[in-house]
Amino acid sequence: MVPVSFANQEMLLTDSRALYWPAERTLLVADMHLEKGSFFARTGQMLPPYDSRETLERIASTIKQTGARRVITLGDNFHDDDGTHRLDPFAAGMLEALIRSIDWVWISGNHDENMHRSFGAYLTQEMVLNGIVLRHEAEHGESRPELSGHYHPKMRLTVRDRRIARPCAVVGRSQDGGDRMILPAFGAFTGGMDAGDPAILKALSPADRIDAVLPAKGKLVQFPLFREAA
Prior knowledge:
Radius of gyration: 17 Å
Distance between the termini: 34 Å
Structural class: alpha/beta
Number of domains: 1
CATH topology: Purple Acid Phosphatase, chain A, domain 2
Oligomer: single chain
Largest sheet: 7 strands, mixed
CATH class: Alpha Beta
Number of strands: 17
């Protein structure tokens, strides 16, 4: 885990693509897309059917690593509304055990805005925690601090003539203190959008600066994506 300052709070980015908020003992994850494999299997695209188990195992491991007492998801928890019914008994048992052991809040997204089951957890469209707005998709022009998901940002680099892509967070900062962050996708089968894509930059505007950030070898690495002209 590496520290990242956000909205006058000390946060921690984990190697598992989650954000831990120590002051709130809260783990935030975005875009798990549970049961994406079974969704595509229905259309004949056969993917290994274990994506939900892998994703839930990583959440459990990250909860243990951080000591979190609450999990808040940031939407697209399931790949579609019916995904709640396709969880195999083992994965469903894993999820129910996690929810029994910790305070769990689902924030719905565009893929699962009509989730059929909450598994005993609280379900909402968005919330505000200690002055920070938590929602699925960044709202253009939002002036309050905001944490969101939706875009699955990835940083694409060329290292020693080799192209690599790494999931990252994207942080927009303004002089008025309205920091906003888009988290990387947490799910096992999630793809990604280039962190510098105009759609991401527009979603975080207005901002004085926008950076891609990710943990690497125990340090926070930042890549500038946008700077307001002087």
